[in-house]
Amino acid sequence: MESEHTLMEIAQEISQCKKCGLAGTRKNAVPGEGPSNAEIMLIGEGPGFYENEQGRPFVGQAGKFLNELLKNGGLNREDVFITNVVKCRPPGNRDPQDVELAACAGYLERQIEAINPLIILTLGRFSMARYFQTAKISAIHGRASWMDGRLIVAMYHPAAGLHQPNLKADIMSDFALLPGFIEKARSERDRQQAESEPASEDRQEDATQLSFF
After folding, report:
1. Cα–Cα distance between 40 and 131 in angstroms, integer?
2. Are residues 16 and 31 in contact, defined by beta-carbon separation less than 8 angstroms?
3. Domain that holds residue 172
4. Residue 198, domain member (yes or no)
5. 33, 56 contact by CB (below 8 A)
6. pLDDT tens digit string along 85-95?
7. CATH number at residue 77
8. How far apart are CA 213 and CA 209, in angstroms?
9. 85 and 46 Cβ atoms separated by less than 8 Å
10. Which of 45, 48, 110, 52 lies closest to 83, judged by CA?
11. In a domain, 48, yes or no
């Protein structure tokens, strides 16, 4: 499968990447994992200690909670593709810096293009900022928006539920909405595929629609 081959090529590039200073402190790069034809793609922030050790995303305590959240939404980890906005661990689990985000941006864009997911879940504010630069995650978490032909849903990072127990109920409730989001996204995809008439010159659909539901 072409998309699978492309993802393998990207992963190989990431494993040898030296575009920013994180290359000098990482043990393993963490390209991401999951099926190349996944309908749902999860984009977190950056690898932590255990991810750096194993070269896999979300394998620590936040990863265990993520697995629980996915099951709460009727999914298994094997159903989704999981990656991060930066592919190497920032020292001490600090926030990613702009230069690091920029260094990895091309890899993430190519992964999205190869997988062409129906839904993207952004986990945390750095991932959310890729689509909603001025929004506050407390205001839009659990809400979906059509953007560039797919559904984007901003979610709290699973680690937030571990560090701030008061957020855990909200996070679980947001993930429980996944079946409904999947149904809506599939219906919209089918509707678009069924349309045979090209858009007229005086009525072109805006590629980015920011109306939430």
Report:
1. 16
2. no
3. 2-191
4. no
5. yes
6. 999 999 999 99
7. 3.40.470.10
8. 11
9. yes
10. 45
11. yes
Strands (E), the chain: 40-44, 81-84, 119-123, 144-147, 150-155, 208-212
CB 130 within 8 A of CB 122: yes
Tokens, residue 209:
């629609």
- Each residue of 97-145: pLDDT tens digit? 999 999 999 999 999 999 999 999 999 999 999 999 999 999 999 999 9
CA-CA distance, 10 to 196, in Å (whole number)? 35
How many structural domains are present in the chain? 1
Any domain includes 203:
no
Encoded tokens for 22: 């994180």
pLDDT digits (tens, 9 = 90+) for 150-196: 999 999 999 999 999 999 999 999 999 999 999 999 998 888 888 86
Phi, psi (5° rounding) for residue 89? -70, 125
Determine the pLDDT at residue 7: 98
